[in-house]
UniProtKB/TrEMBL annotation:
PANTHER family: BROAD-SPECIFICITY PHOSPHATASE YOR283W-RELATED, HISTIDINE PHOSPHATASE FAMILY PROTEIN-RELATED. This is Phosphoglycerate mutase. InterPro entries: His_Pase_superF_clade-1, His_PPase_superfam, PG/BPGM_mutase_AS, PGM_Phosphatase. It comes from the Bacteria. Coiled coil: none annotated. Keywords: Glycolysis, Isomerase. Pfam families: His_Phos_1. The keyword Repressor does not apply.
Length: 200
């Protein structure tokens, strides 16, 4: 029986988050701050309280996602499985620009046909493609997958899974996640829906 429930979380705080600078893969080895570790433990308590059935914990290949997943996996009594494809969006030419530009210069990321893409980097569609490909074998199994990923990557995959309009959703910040925020999706015959979104 395939999972009818999917838990998605953003990693805890890093110094890069505090600085508010887009770094892409340059940040792959960034560790959590003390606050980030505290957020990871709080996330573990929230997920444990949801009593997921036969939980399985997955994290991106980036250090901060794995550090966030570790107390969660310990609380649930399962290992952390690292999955390629869950990593943060590549900001391309926007590497080094402040997070604030995502709001003030959002029009620079809009492409013909209703897509959102970083010049020289990835589009939301490309991120959703790799993320859902990584999730495919996970969702073919049983139990409740708990996936720790990144802000931009979560926006991309939620747009895909919830069939939301990319440009409008990006502009509105509908799926923007705070550090260690939790989203729960449930699946029915009609597809996925959000039972909780950006809970933190």
């Amino acid at each position: 029986m395939t999972p009818g429930r999917l838990l998605l979380a953003r990693h805890g705080q890093t110094t890069g988050n505090v600085a508010g600078i887009l770094r892409g893969a340059d940040s792959r080895n960034d560790p959590l701050t003390d606050e980030g570790h505290a957020q990871a433990h709080a996330l573990a308590r929230r997920v444990l309280a949801l009593n997921p059935d036969a939980p399985r914990v997955y994290a991106s290949s980036y250090c901060r996602a794995q550090q966030t997943a570790a107390p969660l996996a310990e609380a649930l009594g399962v290992p952390v499985t690292v999955l390629d494809g869950l990593q943060e969006i590549d900001p391309g030419a926007w590497r080094g620009r402040p997070y604030a530009d995502l709001r003030t210069h959002a029009q620079e990321l809009l492409r013909p046909g209703g897509s959102v893409a970083f010049p020289g980097g990835e589009s939301l569609e490309a991120v959703a493609d790799r993320f859902t490909a990584a999730l495919a074998p996970v969702l073919a199994g049983s139990g409740t997958p708990v996936v720790v990923s990144h802000g931009g990557a979560l926006i991309a995959v939620l747009i895909r899974l919830l069939r939301a309009p990319p440009v409008e959703t990006w502009r509105a910040g509908t799926f923007t996640h705070a550090n260690a925020a939790l989203t729960e999706l449930t699946r029915t015959a009609d597809g996925w829906s959000a039972a909780r979104l950006n809970e933190h």
